[in-house]
């Protein structure tokens, strides 16, 4: 499956357990209902499955990385305030986009101490945008902040870059800082153009014909438009059928490409940042660090004055994140840990006061899941399909969730191959197995074909090639 979309677009059924709001300036609000379809959290195990036990939790600390049924406990996620002062230099403004991925919503951070400040991440363009902009304006007014020195994007997922345009309209021109943007056109848009079908998804003025967050049903495609080629690529998306799902993905992808084009064409002032680059405002200096894994362009930012990290979607204030490349992700976690950050400001969930502790727990959690997957693979004497491993590790998962379990296992098998510990084979027409020399990354191809066979290299002799 081509990676047409970010993880934000994939709905997981996820009901987090209650967590305490961190101490500090708060504005009480009613518990929020969670909506499907926004960004980073990922389920781990179900009831009856092999349980991973995390390291003992120090007394007085909350279990941020929940496992088993704790992840799906009944109840409502403890709310975060619309905005709160976390430290002398950092204010969290909650984007009003609660969801199964975004928890209470995307955390957007005003950083600095002056009348102009940096804003890290911007919330969702099509969900909660007006409410977010009003709350941000009220927050800035109460704090005596008159404008923005810059907009900093941790990664190009739509719940993080969504309101760049609105912010430019209100406070601009404001410099935008992000990782270097891809020069490639979206694979989905390219495929639709190649097939001569893109016009069926656009209005006469070149915008998406269907807005799934506003319109009731998508318009019907002409009967002679064959979209069967897209069926497997869209099967995990919102919608009742391939046509409706394709309209949904097209809408999100078009807006993503539109922002990239606006930045590249200098409609908004934009600067690409890489590891070691700094962004400054009165009272605060951010040092950028490229930390791929959740996405290939993911950046974290060190607040030098407090030696604390804005962790984006790599580390969350509750639960664990969605991962596209496990090897990159683990490398990034270890780099973050080596910095010994005092605290973490996550992209979703509550402020993390002990940065080192949570990073150690994230690493331990992933290592235990990796060990379990490796043991299931290494004991087999012949190459095996991924579904065999999935059913062993997730024996009681309901069928509609098995694709999530498969995704969890696949990112680990890809990691084993990347490290040289495992091989992957493709059956040929003559019944022989052909070993693949190199796999596409999870950033490029989200899910590999079902027919691939996997083997630990130290236990399985090379099959007949």
From TrEMBL:
Origin organism is Cladocopium goreaui
> Metallo-beta-lactamase domain: which residues?
105-348
Name used for this protein in its record:
Metallo-beta-lactamase domain-containing protein
Q: A Pfam family name for this chain?
A: Lactamase_B
List the PANTHER family hit by this protein, alphabetically. ENDORIBONUCLEASE LACTB2 (PTHR23131:SF0)
Q: Which domain of life is it from?
A: Eukaryota
């Amino acid at each position: 499956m081509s990676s047409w979309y970010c993880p934000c677009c994939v709905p997981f059924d996820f009901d987090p357990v209650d967590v305490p709001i961190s101490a500090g300036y708060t504005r009480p609000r009613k518990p929020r209902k969670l909506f499907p379809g926004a960004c980073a959290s990922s389920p781990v195990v179900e009831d009856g499955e092999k349980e991973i036990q995390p390291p003992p939790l120090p007394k007085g600390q909350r279990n941020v990385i929940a496992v088993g049924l704790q992840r799906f406990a009944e109840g409502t996620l403890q709310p975060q305030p619309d905005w709160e002062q976390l430290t002398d230099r950092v204010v969290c403004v909650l984007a009003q986009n609660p969801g199964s991925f975004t928890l209470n919503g995307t955390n957007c951070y005003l950083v600095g101490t002056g009348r102009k400040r940096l804003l890290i991440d911007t919330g969702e363009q099509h969900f909660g945008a007006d409410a977010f902009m009003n709350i941000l304006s009220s927050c800035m007014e109460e704090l005596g902040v008159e404008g923005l020195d810059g907009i900093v994007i941790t990664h190009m997922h739509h719940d993080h870059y969504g309101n760049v345009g609105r912010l430019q309209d209100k406070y601009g021109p404001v410099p935008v800082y992000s990782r270097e943007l891809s020069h490639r056109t979206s694979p989905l848009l390219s495929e639709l153009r190649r097939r001569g079908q893109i016009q069926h998804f656009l209005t006469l003025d070149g915008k998406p014909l269907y807005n799934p967050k506003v319109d009731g049903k998508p318009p019907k495609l002409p009967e002679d438009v064959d979209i069967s080629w897209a069926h497997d690529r869209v099967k995990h998306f919102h919608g009742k059928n391939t046509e409706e799902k394709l309209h949904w993905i097209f809408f999100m992808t078009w807006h993503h490409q539109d922002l990239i084009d606006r930045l590249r064409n200098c409609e908004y002032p934009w600067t690409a940042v890489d590891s070691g680059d700094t962004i400054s405002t009165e009272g605060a200096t951010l040092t950028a660090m490229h930390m791929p894994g959740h996405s290939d362009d993911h950046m974290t930012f060190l607040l030098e004055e407090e030696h604390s990290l804005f962790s984006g979607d790599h580390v969350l204030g509750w639960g664990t994140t969605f991962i596209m490349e496990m090897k990159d992700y683990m490398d990034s976690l270890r780099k973050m840990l080596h910095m010994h950050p005092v605290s973490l400001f996550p992209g979703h969930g509550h402020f993390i006061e002990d940065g080192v502790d949570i990073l150690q727990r994230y690493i331990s959690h992933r290592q235990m899941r990796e060990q379990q997957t490796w043991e299931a693979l290494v004991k087999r004497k012949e190459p095996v399909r991924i579904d065999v491993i999935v059913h062993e590790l997730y024996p009681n998962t309901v069928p509609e969730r098995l694709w999530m379990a498969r995704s969890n296992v696949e990112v680990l098998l890809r990691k084993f191959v990347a490290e040289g510990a495992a091989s992957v084979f493709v059956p040929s027409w003559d019944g022989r197995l052909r070993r693949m020399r190199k796999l596409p990354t999870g950033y490029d191809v989200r899910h590999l074909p079902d027919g691939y066979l996997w083997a630990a290299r130290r236990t399985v002799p090379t099959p007949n090639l």
